[in-house]
User: Which sequence fits this backbone?
């Protein structure tokens, strides 16, 4: 798995090398965060020691979201090239989120990579194995994704990969569009086709 993670991080770093100063300050798919905020958050495990992490978490009353927001705001002010270098230099670092394992680390990287690149229309070449692994992780439940996107009675099919999951009405789309959709991001509905798409929007509205 670490080889898949490393390949994905290097591909993302190569894509991010092309961003302009304006693009770094542009909105991401993470509400309220720019591209720089997202990358600062993504590389936080590589820049903060365990002791500093625990101290910061204690200072924030155990509120990880508050602490994470603080670090993202602070580190987003660093030169973008420095942030990208940290990502690239840690391509092979086997960090994993609590209880998430390496699959959780890969999902974290791919989802946040798309949070940055998707709004920019940037060609971020996610390795096929990485994309299918993340799609499997997102859709482990039969009724909804871990981010709450409805799956009951829906077959999700990637048009650019040999991947599908579920049973029922079909919802089709490209993997780079499906990942943010299933991760609860606000992406245009017209990117997806099939009766399953209409069913998903109906279930989500309830």
Assistant:
């Amino acid at each position: 798995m670490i080889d898949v993670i490393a390949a994905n991080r290097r591909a993302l770093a190569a894509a991010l090398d092309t961003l302009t100063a304006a693009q770094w300050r542009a909105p991401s798919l993470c509400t309220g965060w720019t591209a720089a905020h997202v990358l600062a958050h993504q590389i936080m495990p590589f820049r903060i020691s365990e002791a500093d992490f625990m101290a910061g978490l204690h200072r924030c009353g155990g509120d990880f979201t508050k602490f994470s927001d603080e670090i993202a705001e602070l580190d987003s002010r660093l030169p973008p090239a420095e942030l990208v270098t940290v990502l690239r230099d840690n391509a092979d670092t086997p960090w994993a989120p609590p209880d998430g394992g390496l699959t959780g680390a890969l999902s974290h990287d791919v989802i946040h990579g798309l949070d940055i690149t998707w709004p920019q229309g940037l060609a971020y070449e996610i390795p096929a194995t990485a994309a299918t692994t993340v799609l499997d992780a997102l859709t482990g439940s039969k009724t909804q994704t871990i981010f709450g996107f409805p799956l009951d009675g829906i077959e999700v099919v990637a048009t650019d990969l040999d991947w599908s999951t579920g049973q029922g009405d079909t919802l089709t789309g490209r993997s780079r569009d499906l990942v943010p959709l299933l991760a609860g991001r606000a992406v245009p509905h017209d990117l997806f086709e099939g009766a399953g798409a209409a069913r998903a929007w109906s279930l989500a509205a309830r």
